[in-house]
What does this fold into?
Amino acid sequence: MTLVVDASVALTWCFEDERTPATIAVLDRVVRDGAMAPSLWPFEVLNALAAAQRRNRLDSERRLRLAGFLRQLPIAIDDDTIEYAWTMSAQLAERHRLTVYDAAYLELAQRMSLTLATLDGDLRSAARMLGVDLIGR
It folds into this structure.
């Protein structure tokens, strides 16, 4: 595993109009090398797919198919996310004015010395300040 992938990148793989060459390259890297995500990642991506269905961006069948696609990717879910939520993630969120959700991705990338794949501007800024490698634009 070489990177931590967040929901902002993973969701581009589900919607053709959101894909970029950089996010396709991240998907290729995930398929080839695997990735990690904090334990909140499945909830985030599933919630976004449900919201897209409510906005009539996709139907139930496609939502289920995309959820299955994301689930089958070699993305390991970090078992220690909750343990670090109370300490490092909360501290990173406060220090860098992030949501604790976003800070969980940053904490995992920092703790595991992995590249962070995100499109979130605030999260990218915080990662740069901490010297965390980035990919995904």
About this structure: The chain has one domain: 3-135. The mean pLDDT is 96. Helices lie at 7-10, 21-33, 41-54, 60-72, 81-96, 100-112, 121-130. The domain at 3-135 is CATH 3.40.50.1010 (Rossmann fold).
